């Protein structure tokens, strides 16, 4: 049957069939059918990387810590806070711990209100109020931190977790 058609008609039909095949393949690709099949195969073998939770660090009492004049690294943020924090008098390594989550503005001020996410009572439970007050006073005394312009722009709005530990360093 097909052979009875003139050669121009056969070429037209072949071109139409090829165009239909390419059009349907392109439509399937736009709908994401090929991509979804690839993801179904690819996903079990390589899990997606996890996102970082934030910047975390421990602050311990240190009477030798010096004041930081310009903050340009994450380490210097924790050093500056360590220089400002003084545990309550007479606590003598009470074993208390408190974790705060907060963010900074690019000029070094605290953004919003710090949030206590963890508290571990020490050997003397009645010292909780004085311990949390000493942490709050450290931020009041030290902020705004003297961030450099580039560092302030890089960390503005990032979540910091500060863990204050009043325990004997290991």
Short description:
The chain is α+β, with helices and mostly antiparallel strands and 170 residues long. The chain is built from five helices and four strands.
The residue fraction in helices comes out at: 40-55%
Helix/strand-derived category reads alpha+beta
Shape: elongated
Kindly report the spatial arrangement of strands forming the biggest sheet. 1-4-2-3
H and E order: HHEHEEHHE
Low-pLDDT residue intervals, each spanning 5 or more residues: none
Mean pLDDT, to the nearest integer, reads 78
Number of helices: 5
The count of strands amounts to 4
Give the radius of gyration: 31 Å
What percent strand? 15-25%
Cα-to-Cα separation, first versus last residue: 91 Å
Specify the biggest β-sheet.
Answer: 4 strands, mixed
Tell me the layout of helices and strands.
Elements: H1 7-31, H2 33-42, E1 55-59, H3 74-84, E2 97-104, E3 110-120, H4 128-142, H5 149-155, E4 160-165
Parallel strand pairs: 1-4
Antiparallel strand pairs: 2-3, 2-4
Molecular structure report:
- Strand 2 (97-104) and strand 3 form a beta hairpin.
- The chain has helices at 7-31, 33-42, 74-84, 128-142, 149-155; strands at 55-59, 97-104, 110-120, 160-165.
- A 4-stranded mixed β-sheet has the order 1-4-2-3, with helices on one face.
- The chain has 170 residues and is of the alpha+beta class.
């Amino acid at each position: 049957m097909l052979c009875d058609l003139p050669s121009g008609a056969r070429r037209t039909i072949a071109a139409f069939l090829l165009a239909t095949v390419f059009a349907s393949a392109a439509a399937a690709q736009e709908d994401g059918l090929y991509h979804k099949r690839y993801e179904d195969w690819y996903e079990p073998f390589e899990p997606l990387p996890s996102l970082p939770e934030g910047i975390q660090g421990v602050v311990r009492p240190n009477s030798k810590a010096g004041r930081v004049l310009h903050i340009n690294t994450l380490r210097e943020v924790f050093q500056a806070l360590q220089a400002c924090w003084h545990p309550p008098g007479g606590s003598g390594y009470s074993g208390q711990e408190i974790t705060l989550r907060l963010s900074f503005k690019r000029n070094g001020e605290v953004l919003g209100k710090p949030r206590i996410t963890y508290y571990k009572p020490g050997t003397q439970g009645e010292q909780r109020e004085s311990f949390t007050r000493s942490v709050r006073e450290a931020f009041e005394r030290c902020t705004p931190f003297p961030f450099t312009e580039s560092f302030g722009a890089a960390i503005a709005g990032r979540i910091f977790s500060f863990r204050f530990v009043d325990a004997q360093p290991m």
